[in-house]
Amino acid sequence: xxxxxxxxxxxxxxxxxxxxxxxxxxxxxxxxxxxxxxxxxxxxxxxxxxxxxxxxxxxxxxxxxxxxxxxxxxxxxxxxxxxxxxxxxxxxxxxxxxxxxxxxxxxxxxxxxxxxxxxxxxxxxxxxxxxxxxxxxxxxxxxxxxxxxxxxxxxxxxxxxxxxxxxxxxxxxxxxxxxxxxxxxxxxxxxxxxxxxxxxx
Length: 201
Known about the structure:
Layout: H1 2-14, H2 24-35, H3 42-51, H4 59-73, H5 83-90, H6 99-105, H7 112-120, H8 129-137, H9 141-151, H10 154-157, E1 176-178, H11 179-182, E2 198-200
Antiparallel strand pairs: 1-2
Helix pairs in contact: 2-3, 2-4, 4-5, 5-7, 6-7, 7-9, 8-9
């Protein structure tokens, strides 16, 4: 898997473009390698699981979140990733499959503080906000801290200040551009992810 991925990276680099993110199968292969890392590949494996798996609700993200959740809860042992580090990595996944594990980890004294730090920066909670709220009501101090952080908008105020001046390039496209043109649908003819918005340029 690693050899094939390196060939892919080299091929894309020759075209001046970044490598594609890992697929679900590639992520599963990385997970298997993390369980018994080949000598000399430790840094590469950590880089792949940390930075090359899409966030959110991608199929690969599900594989990543499931494994990290198992490591964070202690049901899996990874020689390269501690329980706390696994929780930290879950907190970088923006929303989706990482949310339930992070909420559950608020009850674990080993991981609670790290899980709270991740949730404080996660806004795509949907109905799982209520799960955090319920833990806060029952006295979970870390859940209370998450709610307080959200209320204080720390996810925004903790970010670097915007520069005073931003220079951009604007491309004018003739005719009509709509979200069908911008959709990340994986194959031609597939239903676009977003269909409602249209621009007139």
